[in-house]
Write a structure and sequence with these properties.
By secondary structure, this protein is of the alpha/beta class. It has five helices and seven strands, in the order ββαββαβαβαβα. It has a single domain, classed as P-loop containing nucleotide triphosphate hydrolases (Rossmann fold). 33% of the residues lie in helices and 22% in strands. The radius of gyration is 15 Å and the shape is globular. The chain starts with 5 loop residues before the first strand and ends with a helix. Bound molecules: guanosine-5'-triphosphate (GTP) and magnesium ion (MG).
């Protein structure tokens, strides 16, 4: 698949305010700062589409982006960001769970893991929650520019084993990873 057009649709605080777009949807999950929003900009080759930041906690809402007339990406706030109040965190968790459990168009979640770090406790918790609730997931190991080619191979295999799902490598610095990920997304339409 070639990405010819990518557009921002809406920022929504909850499922009820997400419009029906009648396209397969993929939601990005992962720790704050792992590179979810950067992924959207890299695959669409539009550095300004999704807001990124080197400070965690940039993405606060469910941000929907439409790719061609083919699919939708939902950029979600990252987990593990402690700087918001407990009540804000609880509210967001409720909204997120509702979105993940009830969004009819959702074909799969994509769980992002930083290539530099081991899988963290909250990554496992998120992955377990998805499995328990039968929400489909595959993994993307991002920031692969920080590690060697050998490590890319061994680390993706390790994530596949731990999460029992496909794990594909990615880096915003190297477009050679894009095609495999887009091909996998397309196979899930
Ligand atoms: N070297 C490198 N840096 C990356 C890569 N992907 C993202 N980054 C950097 O990581 C930082 C965080 O990226 P974001 O895309 O804002 O992270 P996020 O997961 O959307 O974060 P939240 O919105 O807080 O959940 C930014 O400084 C990016 O430039 C990558 O593949 N390689
Ligand atoms: Mg973000």
């Amino acid at each position: 698949m070639k990405i010819k057009q990518a557009k921002f649709i809406i920022s929504s605080p909850n499922l009820a305010l997400c419009p029906d777009l009648n396209l397969p949807e993929f939601a990005l999950l992962g720790r704050s700062n792992v590179g979810k929003s950067s992924f959207i900009n890299a695959i669409t080759r539009n550095g300004k589409l999704a807001k990124t930041s080197n400070k965690p906690g940039k993405t606060r809402l469910i941000n929907l982006f439409q790719i061609n007339e083919d699919f939708v990406i939902a950029d979600l706030p990252g987990y593990g960001y402690a700087k918001v109040s407990q009540s804000t965190q609880a509210e967001w968790q409720k909204n997120l769970e509702q979105y993940l459990l009830k969004r009819d168009a959702l074909k799969s979640t994509i769980q992002f893991i930083d290539a530099r770090h081991e899988i963290q406790k909250n990554d496992f918790q998120m992955n377990d929650w998805l499995k328990v609730n039968s929400v489909p997931v595959f993994a993307v190991m991002t920031k692969c520019d920080y590690i060697s080619r050998n490590e890319v191979f061994t680390k993706t295999k390790k994530i596949e084993k731990y999460f029992d799902c496909v794990c594909l490598p990615f880096s915003v610095k190297n477009s050679m990873y894009n095609d495999e990920i887009l091909k996998h997304i397309e196979s899930l339409f």
